[in-house]
Design brief:
4 copies of one chain form a homotetramer.
Chain A: E1 5-10, H1 14-25, E2 30-36, H2 40-50, E3 54-56, H3 59-63, E4 70-73, H4 77-89, E5 93-96, H5 104-117, E6 121-123, H6 131-141, E7 148-156, H7 168-171, H8 173-190, E8 194-202, H9 207-211, E9 217-224, E10 229-235, E11 243-250, E12 253-258, E13 265-269, E14 272-275, H10 281-302, H11 310-329, E15 333-334, H12 335-341
Parallel strand pairs in A: 1-2, 1-4, 2-3, 4-5, 5-6, 7-10
Antiparallel strand pairs in A: 7-11, 8-9, 8-15, 9-10, 11-12, 13-14
Helix pairs in contact in A: 4-5, 5-11, 8-11
Chain lengths: ~350, ~350, ~350, ~350
């Protein structure tokens, strides 16, 4: 059995905690070696709950550990680029939460640094590791639905974002923040690149978002190079539950991924039948989070390049930026124009 | 196009109305030629709503019409035998609601009269004509589940029977009245005869039933000649809706028939997801009622024997009587013992 | 009981036959009094199967019957306007299949003629009469989902249209032909008018359509006056079955309408679970067709204006024309611009 | 934070491995301190995969560790009694896989030893810790379905047992081995004790079972003291998947627990819709296994008695023995007679 890979987690917010606990307990071939977190309370809590010896306030102290082989970056999006570049310089393999960056330029700078350092980089599009999406990919790749014709995807969160999360300069705004998962899935499942997008957005429920210039609902129409079409919906106000659905209609069939029920119970009374709904992220994608981290470690153990990588992050980011501009301008946006503009 | 078969309906209760309206509107190759109904109000209502010229108070007046070719008997169960025998003597083809009779002896007397007269007889096991049950039969016959191993069936009514329906001497009691459909399905789908039954019954909800010596819930265990096993449940208190389900587990797979949803709508709110439930008989089996009547007419038009016939009614009745005795005695009942007792 | 309304059916194609048979058998308060059909074979078949006395080759002969009170127009779309106008001149109440016309001008001409004649006009948006859509309307109107935020609708046909149906000059093209139902539903369920549309279209499967300048798949994005958003999908290539789904996400919940299963049977084998899918139109909307015709007759019997009327047809048509132009131009189309252009 | 409880696992078969890995990774407040396993290969594998320092061949060596506070017994059923008694003598808290024993006498002997030692004992009825069954219990306890009237439960395994598992003297035979979970659930959900059982059994598919005197399918009918009825099915031949379903029909509604789908994907093709089925135990009850072990540790940490305990194991065992005798004799068995016989 090969030695366990020593992994450090930078950032112990909600997702950082998820990754740290997975590493500590469920990921084979890796060990949670160190964490870095600027918030003192969060550090104290981690020390109490996870028995980690090396807890740093400054991520650069963590990166300075020579024996550390890999890092997981789960800090706020605006800090991703700087930390990934520093980790690359330090020669660490990198797993970074999505999105890698909020601008094309920044994403390219990161990719260049990673390429120069020759380190592995995986980006956190965990849906690709969900058993449902994996099965869908398999079915499509195996020809079960012919060739893809229409891609539809819905991502609905069960609550308006908390106030401290509202700044679209930090989150990228609704479309970049939420739909980037769907944009990544669209390329992966359709097997073609998006060429043109149009978008509509509105703010009808989460009124705090309006005050910071963000929206709570969006619908993005897409055209792929293959001639396939797509539509992606994002919503902040599915108060009934976490509703994530994707379907691909092909020339010979269709595949639909999505689950509304959480626990396998239905109550029947005089007023009809009732069941619960998927509450949130970890209930739906807990296994996918584990799967993507295991994939990252397995690739490192076997000397293979993990996926999805920084190029895939860039491709999804471009769709997200184009869709955001399309919403803002009310006009179609060609991804090729975006390309030129950013050079 | 052959001439329409002239059909008379005897009894205009709930089921008689269903059959009469089907004949008047949706059954090809037949015409609603006459009705007989002892209740004056019911006759007046039928005259107003269905534009039938020949409406009799006495069923024997209807049977005396020489041009009438077929009759549908939907009177109370206790009168079935006498009317079917009279119709056979009059040379009419006969469709009779289930059960044909409440005792084996009576069922045999009816079969003898029908055989002597050489008339067609079909009994109203309409579930056999439901698209779901037909598909299940097809799948089983085609070997999709291997050979049958376990038969399970549930029949739940959404309300306690009305007071005027309570007399078990007239209905045969819960097991005969409700489960006879499941007993018929069991023979048809398993393809083997029931040899032994045990049963438990209780009266916990519809307390009026206790006062007349009937029960509101029963569970019947069955052993088939093939070695297959079965369980049939009847309940009067599924106040959430009409719940009819059957499944057959085979040596290579299983087939499950059943539908809880009625309209194709789901409401999602903060308290979860809700949908409606099948309300009652006609919503679930409306098409099957039409199908069985069309089958009866088609057979008459083509000179073929309709099915299920009186022998099948007898076979289901035997299981029902055995199960009722098993419940009453708390002991297993062999159907072969029943056979001897009744000779 | 009031006298039955004498109804004539003009056009005995697929839908004409549906309406004629419904009138002959299942619609209370009406009688199938006459039919008109230019095709001789179709007339012969109708005579054989439906026992109608008055069968005309020329619809104007039918309209000339003074005792005829209402007509159902189910001829090809390009003839709707002329026949509805003639029926209005003849003083008949009119039920016309959708769409009433293929241009705004023509639709307006028809409405003017109908208004002058003071006759009733109902247009065939039968989905409004489906139990599922009716329940959804009720739930939304009752506040169960708060106010509407996003409207999504999918209409997928299970086969490419036959060659004789291909001319988009006659059908209006994919978006007008198929999505007009969804556009009508969008206004009805959202309770607000569409202000702007964008659209993508493609021809990837039904290659015959490309040769006549039509498409086989389209995605239309919509913005409503209320700020709500919408997306409507049309596809000709859902070879797995007839797939009609609609959902409305509101500020407090969501309602989803749609049914994939047809018969209530699931087969479980070593390769998984399998069930059938809704085959086509009549299996899904047979009851809605009956319901809309009964509504038309009930309104005539009670002297009320039937709905949806010609104004509703015009409103749905406008969205369809705008969406078609948006697809053709690749640009957003404001419905207000359309308005001006057509004056 | 209290010190972690040192736990030893006795037996590293399939279930032992599950428990050991859970302890090593996912159970808060406990540590995997030692294991005992007679098979050398299994010990070597455990050493390689789990980094446990104390690995014994003899369970009594493990029990001799004075600092060990709790043990998990997952050896073959026939050794449970001896090991639990030894663990009790050694003063360890005990979690034992179901069943605790295969005879009433043995179960009582174990309970007496545990009581004398005053140690905690929990028995592995993990379904009680499944989110679905917990929700059902809650709904029933909260009155959502009125009072229980009928209990139905199905347990179907996806393959015939392997040859080395065939001896019914070791497993207790089909009914005891599989249905004991359902018997435990029946008491827990109905809230009443079983008084009488009848049973049918057959061997139609797993022919190896016949050669050792066991059966592959059984149906057990039950009567509860409250007057409620029950039916429990066990099958070895659900080759389509692991099929575990329970429902309770009450006086005011019903609750149904069960899940056929595994991954949230449906494939639609010209032949219909297809989806996968729950493969086996860990996919369905992985979380429940974790939950029951966490409950055991939490109770130890908080000084509370864990549940279900040995009395509950005895109650379920009695139903299982009565049902086995009922099957063997073809006669109803009263649980009160069983009681006397065993004294």
């Amino acid at each position: 059995m090969p030695a366990r890979i020593k992994v450090g987690v930078i950032g112990l917010g909600r997702m950082g905690n998820v990754h740290a606990r997975l590493l500590a307990t469920q990921i084979a071939g890796a060990s949670l070696y160190a964490v870095a977190e600027s918030d003192e309370q969060a550090r104290t809590r981690a020390a109490a709950e996870m028995s980690i010896e090396r807890i740093f306030a400054d991520p650069f102290d963590l990166l300075a550990l020579p024996e550390l082989e890999a890092v997981i970056v789960t800090t706020p999006t605006s800090t991703h680029a700087e930390l990934v570049i520093a980790a690359a310089h330090a020669g660490k393999a990198i797993f970074c939460e999505k999105p890698l960056a909020l601008t094309i330029e920044e994403n390219r700078t990161v990719l260049a640094a990673v390429a120069r350092a020759g380190v592995a980089l995986q980006v956190g599009f965990m849906r690709r590791f969900d058993a449902g999406y994996q099965r869908a990919k398999q079915l499509i790749a195996g020809g079960s639905i012919g060739y893809p014709v229409t891609f539809k995807s819905i991502s609905r969160d069960p609550f308006c974002p908390p106030r401290n999360y509202l700044d679209p300069a930090k989150s990228g705004g609704l479309i970049l923040d939420m739909s980037i998962h769907d944009f990544d899935l669209s390329r992966w499942l359709v097997g073609s690149e998006v060429e043109r997008v149009t978008a509509e957005g509105t703010t009808l429920v989460c009124h705090d978002l309006a005050s910071v210039g963000d929206i709570d609902n969006a619908l993005v129409n897409m055209r792929f190079a293959s001639g396939a079409l797509g539509n992606v919906e994002a919503s902040r106000n599915a108060f009934y539950g976490y509703d994530i659905r994707t379907e691909v209609l092909g020339s010979e069939g269709a595949v639909m991924i999505g689950a509304h029920r959480h626990t396998p119970v239905v109550l029947f009374t005089r007023t009809g039948a009732q069941h619960d709904v998927m509450p949130y992220l970890m209930e739906r994608f807990g296994d996918a989070y584990r799967g993507q981290l295991q994939h990252f470690i397995d690739c490192l153990q076997q000397g293979q390049a993990p996926s999805p990588d920084g190029q895939e992050a860039l491709a999804a980011l471009k769709i997200g930026i184009a869709a955001t501009r399309a919403y803002q301008s009310g006009q179609p946006v060609m991804l090729s124009d975006l390309e030129e503009a950013s050079l």
